[in-house]
Structure formats: structure tokens, C-alpha cells
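Bench log, entry 3. Co-assembly request; chain sequences pasted below exactly as received.
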Amino acid sequence: MSLPAVKALTFDVFGTVVDWRTSIARELRAALEPAGHEFDWLQLADEWRGGYQPALEQVRSGARPWVTLDVLHHENLVELLAKHDIAELSESEIEELSHAWWRLDPWPDAVEGLSRLKQRFIIATLSNGNIALMVNLAKHGALPWDAILGAEISHSYKEQPITYLGSAEALGLRPDECAMVAAHNDDLVAAGALGFRTMYVNRPAEHGPGQTTDIRALHDFDIAATSLTDLARQLEC
Amino acid sequence: MSLPAVKALTFDVFGTVVDWRTSIARELRAALEPAGHEFDWLQLADEWRGGYQPALEQVRSGARPWVTLDVLHHENLVELLAKHDIAELSESEIEELSHAWWRLDPWPDAVEGLSRLKQRFIIATLSNGNIALMVNLAKHGALPWDAILGAEISHSYKEQPITYLGSAEALGLRPDECAMVAAHNDDLVAAGALGFRTMYVNRPAEHGPGQTTDIRALHDFDIAATSLTDLARQLEC
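Structure output for the full assembly:
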């Protein structure tokens, strides 16, 4: 597949590049099991993530001013702990646990795929994660980004148009010189409507074995790939 | 030298990491000599750079709204060409030549020094260069930044305090968890006054053999180094 105008690939990160679910389950377990708590840790991870879209919607709707995803993750963790009557964590322990989102492991194909794609394209995050979160995630997983863009650049959250357009503008590129790479149909539809090229990466186990959404490309995207190394292969990187 | 609180090194780029002067002279010559122009190319590079601080000052003073350094470089090039009665370049050729600032070569020690420092620290740009400029510069010279910060993050220009503080905040760090690395005394004094640690790198030939300013550290910085590899050595990287 040749898309000669494309100069930059902009990436969704949670689910597309990193496996947040098993990593968060591991982090929750490491923090809570020593104190005697027993949970279905994957389900607890899903509960924490469950607060994500409602929190973003508060910002997208204008009901509250822009705050970083680190702040929202922290708030949602405090709620999660309260709901399950977990009261013994200190403030600094809660802060440390809220940074579990800085320690998500990449999918096995991610580092090789990104490294190959980086040889031919600018590769940048276009995630709802803030800069500190994305930088620490990159350090944890050796993700070789050229730039950290996305939500914090424009103080907005996907799928608000300005989140995509602000990242393209920061790169000095037109939308059609950028390709959005994501495992989520909605993300690609939103980017595509603004003129971005669209590249779907299938992650049918992001939400576990029973996943029912985003198990395949539902639209005619420019590319549909099974992994980031498969994407690199299709782009001849 | 051990500075245990420091988690991120933030870098001045023009002069500290890349050799803008000989690179710009080369680019000007490549663009203008084929049409029969003859110049002292290094002096012409100095003239172009001479418009830099006055243009920034227009923004810093509030006389004009924030615009990117790419825009200011372009405007200053148009003035430079007019001053020397160079009229035959097309708009797209002027645009291409204005991007000479995307093609500056790193000092010989820069890539090795940054790569070693990156093993232990977050390394980020804290330059007046905008994101597109810094990303393209990194691609040109294989500079392994973890993040592109600086002027465009806060829509301000050094040495305005918000340029430094906005970059530290984007990393989720206090100023004293960041160290400014620069070849310019003023840059380090400004960062130090805000609580940053300060690391001087000597570049006595940035402005050529007759350089009279910034030929040595004039203040008691945390570190004074002769190169980025020397800085890595002093930080035990």
C-alpha cells in the first residue's frame, strides 16, 4: 500500500499500542493483595477504566475545564477504592497507584512495529493521555515516539475535532498528510471525517476474550492490519 | 556529580545541540550559488540569525500575538533576500529555504551524548523552536528526544518564565526535578532563577572563531561540561 502524501502516523495508544487491561490488573493486584484484598483483578481494571469516558465527557461537554487524564485517573481511583471500602491506602500510595497508567506494557508487536514505521514516517501519539503520562509510558515500554501530541496540545479530548486538527497543525501538516492509527472504529471515523488517512489495527483482546466491540474494521479504512508489525509490512517499512 | 532529584534534562537546541551557523551557511549557498550569487555564506547566515532576537522580542513584549519560529524564520528570510536584491526565488523556493532550520547538523558529540543521557533521564527540548521544526530537526539528525516541549507548549518565548515552567509542568515535574542544559549563560540564569538545576555546555565556536560571548560558564552552575558526551560522563551515564 502506497500513500505518498502521508508524512506522519498519529497513534491512539491505550488499546492500540499498549495492553492497558492486563497491566492495570497486575498493578492493582500488586498494590492491594498484600493487604489481604481479593478481587477479580481484570474486572477491577475494567471498573477503573469504566470511569474514563464519563470523566472525559465532563470535559468535552464544557461542564468542567480541561484537566489532564492523570487527574481523571486519580479521581476515578479514589472513587473505585471508596466503592470497595478500601480505606488503608495513604495519599502517596494512591498517587503512586494512580500512576499505574504510566506502567502499561506494549503489545508484543508494538516496539518492533513502531521502530520500523519510524524509519519512514514521523510517529507521534494522538492520545487522550497527557504529556507526562505518555512520556513515562514511553520510558516504561521503550516506545520510540518522535513527538507526544494529542489532548494536552489542544486542551481537548477525542473525538473532538480540535484534538486531531491541533496535532496535525503542530506537525505543520495538512490532515491528509497524517494517518490516524487506532484499534477503535470511532476514533478512525472521527479522524477520517477531518481528512486524515485511516489505519485500523485489530486488537480483539483489548477488553478480554469476550470482547464484542472493535473486533474488526467496520468501515472502508485505508488499511486494516492485524498488528503494528503487519502495518509496517503493508507500508513496506 | 549526583543530583538525585533530577528526573528530566531539558535542552536548549540551537547552538547547544546543533550547529546552526555552518548548516545555514551550507543551505544558503546550495540555494543561491547556482543562480550566480556570491556571498560570505557564514556572514549571510549570521545576518539571517540576526533577525531572531528582535522577532522574538515582538512576541515577548506583546506587540504581536504568538507565532511559531517557522513563521519568524520565513519572515526574516524574506527581508534578508530583499535587502540583498535577490528576487528570483519562487514562493515555494523561499518556503523550502526557510526550512533550512529543519536541516541543521548536530554537533559531533550530540547524538552519542543524548543517547547516553536518555538511559537515565527524560530528555526533552526546551527550545524556542516550534514542534514541527524540532521534530524535523530530530529526524534530520537522529536526535532521540523523549518529548518536544518549549515555546509552542506555552505559546511563549525564552527567557519568559512560563516557557520553562510550562515545560516542567507538562512533564508533571517540579522545577527542581528538571535540569536546563544550554550553551548560553542567560538561558541557564533564567531557568535557575525558577528553580531548575543548571548544566552548561561550552560551545565556543557556535558563532565562529571570533566568538566573544558564551565562551565559558560565567556563573556557578551545577555542572559545566565541554560537550554532551562530557556531560554524560559527569552524570555517570
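The mean pLDDT of chain B is 97. The two ends of chain B are 11 Å apart (CA to CA).
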